[in-house]
Design a protein that fits this description.
177 residues, mainly beta, five-stranded antiparallel β-sheet, four-stranded antiparallel β-sheet, 17 strands, elongated
Length: 177
């Protein structure tokens, strides 16, 4: 029987990762699983509360185990020192992502707005930037397909720059994450 007490999804440049946490409230057992793989396992611990620190790529994560009343526990996840919700809000400001299918294969394209790095299914792509009349285009390839991310001004200070992905000159809608 599994003692899984919490599950979270964390969206990073290299993909969306599923994090599961098992906590045996009688034995203190702790298991951290990322994308179905155990990355930490402690079968017997006397301390039932505390923190577990681990890395996921460049991100630093912490699972906090706190007693709330009697034998009830609360589990929270922090990513890079921020509560998960705050981290997600920040990610939506610095990352733009698209999901598409090419030749039956799902593809996730991510633009890191702060570095202008482009990732496809977790692999950083070589890119070439080009100035065009109405903004910039960042060109790269997805297999045998040409792709580019077009950045244009929204004309509104609050909206800032609008990024659009084109693959073989077809616009791809933004992913909802």
């Amino acid at each position: 029987m599994s003692d899984t007490v919490a599950q979270w999804e964390v969206s990073l440049s290299d993909g969306v990762h599923k994090i599961e946490f098992e906590h045996g409230t009688t034995t203190g057992k702790r298991v951290i699983r990322v994308d179905g793989q155990d990355i930490y396992r402690q079968e017997w611990m006397f301390k039932l509360v505390g923190k577990e620190h681990f890395d996921l790529g460049k991100a630093k994560l912490v699972i906090s185990i706190d007693a709330v009343s009697g034998f009830a526990y609360e589990y929270t996840l922090e990513v890079n020192g921020k509560p998960l919700q705050k981290f997600r809000e920040n990610q939506s400001k610095i990352m733009k992502s698209w999901v598409l299918t090419i030749a039956g294969n799902p593809m996730r394209v991510v633009l890191e707005k702060d570095t202008l790095d482009v990732w496809v299914n977790g692999d950083k792509k070589d890119t070439a930037g080009e100035f065009v009349d109405d903004g910039t285009e960042t060109h790269f390839e997805i297999g045998a397909h040409s792709a580019y991310i077009k950045a244009v001004s929204s004309g509104k200070r609050k909206s800032g720059i609008i990024h659009k992905l084109f693959v073989d000159d077809n616009e791809i809608p933004e992913a909802k994450e």
